[in-house]
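Subgroup meeting minutes
Present: P.N., E.W., G.H.
Scribe: E.W.

1. P.N. recapped why we're keeping a running log of single-chain structure predictions: easier to compare across weeks, and new members can see raw inputs and outputs side by side.
2. G.H. added today's entry (178 aa).
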Amino acid sequence: MNWIKRILGGLIVLILILIGVSYLLPGKAEVSRSITIAAPPEAIFLYVNSMQETEKWSPWLSRDPETKLTYSGPDAGVGNTLNWSSEHPQVGTGSQEIIASTPDQAVRTALDFGPMGTATASFVLQPEGQQTQVTWGFTSELGLNPMSRWMGVMMDKWVGGDYERGLDNLKALVEGQG
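Output recorded in log:
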């Protein structure tokens, strides 16, 4: 009976340590990947400034071809919104709306994953001679939830590969148009 109390006491101490350490972890999760595409910014911009066009290179839609997509607002630019719904756990349900758009330079979006939280994403197009460096970024405020902070540590590992695949898809799409 005494050993059960020791085990329970040890578990409680371990949980308290994990919670305490979580407050030392970053309060924000950030992911960023870049690729150089052999095209000018204006050839790339239309594929990042429209949720309908992202469908052509998204790294997530291939995971669940049954994902339900609906669009609202204008066809491109600020206010263009995508809502998606999928039973696949790596796709899930949510919405993404373009909240800022600077032609041939940058696009910023607001993401809402429902109970999973919110985030912002961005695309920055930087001309480099006859090419363009495209940087796709993601930022999420994690708040004070200890579990969110531990998950934030893993965000780059979880999302980074998807961003790389998406940028590879975008590169193939844009360079294939030329």
